[in-house]
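To: structure desk
From: M.T.
Subject: fold request, one chain
Message: Could you run this one when you get a chance? Sequence is below, nothing fancy, just the single chain.
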Amino acid sequence: MALRARNLRGNLLFYNTNPLRITNAFGPDVVSYFEDFTNIAVASDALTNWTVTLVEAGAGDTTITRPDASGGTLLITTDANEDDGANLQLTTGESWGFAATDFGTYFGIRFKSGEATQSDILVGLCITDTTLLGGMTDGVYFEKLDGGTGISFVTEKDSTETQTDSLATFAADTWTTLEFFGTGASVKALINGTVVATHTTNICNDELLTPSIHFLTGNAAAETMTIDWIRAIGVGRA
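Reply: Done. Structure tokens follow.
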């Protein structure tokens, strides 16, 4: 598949099939992060450049490992008590935003989980918070809550949300790609390459955000989340 490019305010953005699905970018106003977990230090409770907060109420441990896989993956395995799991946030800085000076911001992640219903999942760009699913104040993110399989997209500013539900059905052990791209005026959400929602309200434009993952088990059993890659690309000026 041919790589294509487009110009955004003097910055070059690369994409494959859809101009919203950014794979890389170069230019004076670009801030980017890409991780495919092929060359990153991982311990059972630590990940280089990420703040990891574990919940381990069960008899075992919530762990983070890097199993052998083509192209690299990260595996989160929860402890075996309901709501055990892990909260991960990139700690190299809250560097992505949707203010008027931000010309375009992209986030994407490809992952799967061993359980479709009994799990809580949140991925996106969020304000620093060690319990994201417990009620953050600002972010743009996808979530899938315990007891259901519907994927929702949320834009949240100062604890006020715009939420679109049932955008897709999450399936166990099936790779899913969640992405969004937009500005402070409009953010488009994509699931597996298809635009499924457009939000124009409650887009956080007064806080900078960071790549974030929160995964919890929804029952008294250990559950898994496998992440293939995660990336965040922003084009804007301070």
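Reply (cont.): The CA atoms of residues 101 and 238 lie 7 Å apart. Let me know if you need anything else for the meeting.
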